[in-house]
Amino acid sequence: GARDLGSPVRVNQLGYLSDGPKRATVVTAATSPLSWSLLDSADQPVATGTTTPYGADAMSGDNVQLVDFGTFRGSGQGYRLAVGTELSEPFDIGDNLYQPLRRDALAYFYNNRSGTPIEAAYVGDAHARPAGHLGVAPNRGDTSVPCFPGTCGYSLDVRGGWYDAGDHGKYVVNGALAAWQLLDLYERSADNRDRGVADGTLRIPEAGNGDPDVLDEAKWEIDFLLRMQVPAGQPLAGMVHHKIHDEKWTGLPTRPAADAQPRYLYPPSTAATLNVAAVGARCARVFARWDLKFAAKCLIAADKAWKAAQQHPAIYAPDGGEGGGAYDDTKVTDEFSWAAAENFATTGLPSYKRAITTELKAADGFSWQETGGLADLALARVPWRLSPPDQAKLRKRLSNVADQYVADIGAQGYANPYLPADGKYVWGSNSAVANNSMIMATAYDLTGTRKYRDAALESLDYLLGRNAINQSYVTGYGERASHNQHHRFWAHSLDPSLPSPAPGSMAGGPNSGLQDPVAQRNLQGCSPAACYVDDIGSYSTNEVAVNWNSALAWMTAFADAEGHT
Ligand code: 9MR
After folding, report:
1. Residue 399 DSSP label
2. Please, what is the Cα angle at 495 between 493 and 497, to 5 degrees?
3. Judging by DSSP bridges, how do beta strands 91-94 and 15-17 pair with one another?
4. Which residue owns the Cα nearest ligand 1 atom 3?
5. 325: CA distance to ligand 1 center in Å?
6. How many whole angstroms separate alpha carbon 336 and alpha carbon 333?
7. Which of 156, 159, 217, 384 has the fewest CB neighbours in a 10 Å radius?
8. Which residue among 534, 535, 560, 562 is the active-site one?
C-alpha cells in the first residue's frame, strides 16, 4: 500500500537554534501562498505569516512551499507549525538543542568498540555486551589474525578499533576517515575554546584521565590502525593491510562475542597505507598537546607509511570478495595528495607541500574513496603554514565550494547541500549531506561568511526530518526517527532480547541504487530522496557506519557550539 508519510509540514524534528535559520517545507498542490502559524505547546499561536511557493523539489518531485519563521525570538519545547489544517511534528527552539545529540553521536563509537566489553555503567543495561573478537570461544578473535591464505606468511595482533558498521569487519580506509573527522572535530573545537570536547564530556572508561574524551575515542581506533601496518623485516614493511574481516558474512543477528567465523587480514593497499600516513600526521599534531609519546608513535607510523607508499604506489584493493565490504579504490592520486597535505600541515616540510596535487571540488566533496578535497581541509586547520597569497587562494577555494553548496540548498525544496549531478543518491547519501555541511562550516571558520554557517546549520534540518519522507535519520531524535538500522547486535526488531540502535545513530539514508533485496521489494520506482526504508534488512539504505556517524558528530558539535555564541 501507499507509504504513510505523516504530516506534509516538514520540520527539523529536533528543533531550531534560537540564533539560527528557521525554515520548514510544506508539501502541497497549492501554488499560491498559504497562511502558517507557529503554535506553542499550549497550541497558542506565537507567530504567523504566509508561505513562499517554491515549485517542484528536484530530488523528490514534491510540489512544495517554504515557511520562514526566522524572526521568531522565543524559546521552549513542543512547538508545532500549522499550515491550514495540517500540523507538523513537534520541535523545540533553544540554545542547547544539540548538546545531547552531540554527545550521543560520539557515544556511537564506544558502543561499537571491538575487543572490549561494552559496560552498562556507560551505555545502560540494554546496550551492554561482552567483548567480541578477543579469542574467547567461539570467537577466533583478532589477537592473532593470519593473512588470507597464500597472501603472506605471518599473523598480526589487530585487536581493538571500532566495528565498521552493522557488520564486524574493520576496514582501514573508512576507519581512518572517521578517526580523522574526530581529530578535526577536536581541533576545531579547541581552536574555538569550545568546552564541549573537555575530559569528562563522554560516558567512556577513559573519562577522567585528563585527556579530552573525543581524543580518547579517536585513539581507540588509531591504535588499531597502527596495528594494521606491516612489520619491519617483511617485504611490504610500512604498508598497511586494507582490512580484516570474517571469511563469510555472518547472519543477523550475531552478537560480536558469538561470531565464530575465521577472520583474515587482507593484503596491504596503497590507499590504506596513505590513510595511515594522513591520519598519523594529524594524530601527531593533535596529540602533541596531550600525549607526546603517542604523538611520536603516530608520526613514525605516518613517515613509514608515506615512504612505503612511494615504493608501492599502485597496489589497489580489489572489488568483490566474500564476508566483508570491498572498499575498493583504483585511483590513489587523491590519497597521496591528502597524506601530503596532512604531513605538510604537521611538519611544514616543503617536500610535502610540493606533493599536494588536489583541491576541494563541490561535485566530489569527500568520502572514504574520494579524499582529494581533504587536502584543503587539512590546510584550512593551519592556514598560518601558508604564505598570505596562498592563504587567500585557500579561502577562495573553500568559498567557491561553499557557494556552490549554498546554491544547491537554494535549488531544492528541502534544504540540502547534496545535489548529485547524475540525479542519483549514493549509498550513504546522508554522509554526503553531513560532509558537505562540514565543508561549509569550515569555510565559515576560515572566512567569517555568515551565510556558510547558516547553510551548514540548515542542512541539519534535512537529516532530522525536513525531507521528502518526513524521516529523522537519527535514532532517538524526532517523532519519526530511524530505529531499525542494519546491525548485528542492535537487532531488536529480529530478537526482542537485543537492543535497538543507541540514540544518536545515523542511517545511511536514501540510495537510488536499491542495492539490497528489502529495498528492491519496497522501493521500486522511488524518487531518489525517497529511496529509504527503516527496515533492518535494508543494508543499502539503512545501515550505520563509523564514517557516517563521525560526520554527524562533527556537525552536531559545530551546531552545539554555534548555539552558544
Ligand atoms: O559506505 C560504503 C559505500 O560507499 C559503498 O558504496 C558500499 C558498497 O561497496 O559499501 C559501503 O560500506 C559498507 C561496507 O562495504 C561493509 N560494511 C558496511 C558498510 C556500510 O554500509
Report:
1. H
2. 115
3. parallel
4. 427
5. 6
6. 5
7. 384
8. 534
Q: Which of 127, 133, 486, 492 is the catalytic position? A: 486
CA of 187 to the centre of ligand 1 (A): 28
**Residue 253 backbone phi and psi in degrees, to 5:** -85, 160
pLDDT tens figures, 396-414: 999 999 999 999 999 999 9
Kindly state the cell numbers that stand for 211.
585527556
The rounded distance, in Å, linking the Cα atoms of 258 and 207 is 29
Query: All 3 cell numbers of residue 290?
Result: 596531550
Closest atom of ligand 1 to CA, residue 428: 1
DSSP SS3 for 372: coil
| Residue 534 annotated in active site | yes
pLDDT tens for residues 543-554?
A: 999 999 999 999
Residue 261 φ/ψ, nearest 5 degrees: -70, 145
How long is the chain?
565
Q: Which residue has cell 566489553?
A: 117
CA of residue 340 to ligand 1 center, whole Å? 26
Q: Which three cell numbers stand for residue 486?
A: 542494519
Cis peptide before 262 (omega within 30 of 0): no
**247 classed as catalytic:** no
C-alpha cell at position 557: 558539535
pLDDT in tens, 357-400: 999 999 999 999 999 999 999 999 999 999 999 999 999 999 99
Q: What is the pTM of this model?
A: 0.99
Reduce the DSSP state of residue 331 to 3 states and report it.
Answer: coil
> What is the CA 464 to chain-centroid distance, rounded?
14
Q: How far, in Å, CA of 354 to CA of 327, rounded?
A: 28
Q: How is 191-252 classified by DSSP, letter by letter?
A: HTT-GGGSTTSS-STTTTSSS-HHHHHHHHHHHHHHHTBPPTTSTTTT-EE-EEEESS---S
Distance CA(22)–CA(68), nearest Å, equals 6
**Closest listed residue to residue 290, CA positions, set 301, 300, 298:** 298
Q: How far apart are the first and last CA of the chain?
A: 47
